[in-house]
Amino acid sequence: MLQTPVRVIQTLRPKIAAGVLTATAVSTIVFSATPFLVRGVSLDQGVDVSTVGVISTAQLAGFSLTTWAAGRYLRARRRMLVIAVLLGAVANLASGWAPWFSVLVVTRVVSGVSLGLIAWIAWAEVFGDDEKVGDVAVIGPLVGIVSAPIIATVVDRSGSDALFYGLAALHVVPLFFVRTTRLDAAARPKRERNRPTRAAAAILLALGMITCGGSAVFVFAGVIGQDDVGLAAFAVSLVFSLNALASVPSARYRGRRKLPGGWMMLTGLCAVTVGTLTHPAAFWIALPLWGFCFWMGTPGAFSLLAERSRFPEERAGDAQSIMAAGRVIGPLIGGAMYAISPAALGLVGGGIMLTAGVLMVYVEWRVRPEVLTGLVRS
Questions:
Q1: To 5 degrees, how large is the angle CA 217–CA 335–CA 85?
Q2: Is there a single domain that holds both residue 157 and residue 252?
């Protein structure tokens, strides 16, 4: 049943290698599972909901460290893809077996390493090809449409351990395509790295804040939907599917995206709404709108970053790393705020995102691309 999202992606006939495609789809499903695992793990392990968010932090810590280190010390070769998917299989098997919450946290770090390797290989492979970048970017929303109801059903009926075992089995799928997968990224020469301009550094900071505030709320959105809004698990999964569905047109939009900071501010308002207005109608509207606005803003933010950078190819990697770092910190903040109240979570998480959006708007309005021609490389 969990292989269905992978088949959905394959029917689109994207122009990236099948091994990379399926591995990316699987990693997206693993990430999509986190909001539903928080409540399931809390029940199965007897741990408070606000504490369970640590499993997201652990996984993202492994992801962030790996994406940072891989681009500096490793080469995107086929055997690295094999190692990545095998690590994911082992990590999820161990997560299903874990007798204590502390062991589960360690296994999620290993899962994060696997996901980081897959993400690094995928983005390294499509670097410089706008069409292929679009193929990778749209995998997340498309997989999310199908996977959320399946994940919610498995957790609700069989518990979190069953989902972990299912995710472990799903990691085997990319191995069937690895033999015919050819990676071009390994042939590219490594280059000396350079420091970002001040404008680029400000945009990177804003991107980190966006994912920090966003993950703080999003990781606990599933719990809010069930425990505070009063929706059934399957209904919550449908809202998450709508979030992914709304992301597809904005992720695939081909026109120029002006004021990405404005879209990020709207995303922040959605986060505030999810936490503070625990009404079914608000939840059903805010979460899908969140997906649309986030994917309208994120590619625009990347374009803004490239325009304000002297070495845009390096800043692309920096953006992935700092956004991952924001997702590491976010669930810790989210857990602390949710322990106070969902409203506190929404206001703090959404407030961080709103601040980031304002910073990004300031950079776009006050620092023009042509100004960079007079700056000294730094």
A1: 75
A2: no
Name the DSSP class of 182: -
Cα–Cα nearest to 20, from 185, 265, 241, 193: 185
Q: At what angle do helices 18-45 and 78-97 cross, to 10 degrees?
A: 20
Instruction: Please report the DSSP string for 211-228 in residue order.
Output: HHHHHHHHTTHHHIIIII
| 154 close to 24: Cβ distance less than 8 angstroms | no
- What range defines the domain where residue 182 resides? 1-190
Say what the pTM is.
0.75
Same domain for 166 and 28 = yes
Q: What is the CATH number of the domain that holds 87?
A: 1.20.1250.20
Number of folded domains in the chain?
A: 2
- Tell whether 177 and 104 lie within a shared domain: yes
Distance CA(356)–CA(117), nearest Å, equals 28
Q: Distance (Å, rounded) from C-alpha 43 to C-alpha 29?
A: 21
**Signed CA dihedral, 365, 367, 368, 369: sign only:** negative
Tell me the pLDDT tens digit for each residue of 265-309.
Answer: 999 999 999 999 989 999 999 999 999 999 888 878 877 887 777
DSSP state of 53: T
Tell whether 184 and 202 lie within a shared domain: no
